[in-house]
Amino acid sequence: MAVTVVKKKHVRDFTEDDYESITELAAQNKSTKEIRELLNLDARSFNIAFRKKDSEVYLCFRRGIDLMNTTVDDALIQRIEEKNLTAVEIQMKRSRIRLVADVVNSFFEL
To answer: Which of 43, 11, 4, 36 is CA-nearest to residue 22?
Structure first.
């Protein structure tokens, strides 16, 4: 029985399609591990690139997360406009969390 070994793709070999796929998968709430496995990416090079906050890998992932959050926020706004009390409570909780985060960041000058 022959065993087929598929070589993992290194970050330096990424194409625009790979970066777009990272954004799309992040928007579907996939973890970095799931993205690596689905796209058959080299774990070491991906993780090194992901840790650099100015790398294309990280920026594409953040774009996907931001896209997902925007979609969720739009749905939440629609429910608030429909006077859905649960949606209002969710929005109020998010506001409190943001307020606490802002206070912490300003206090510690982050």
So the answer is: 36
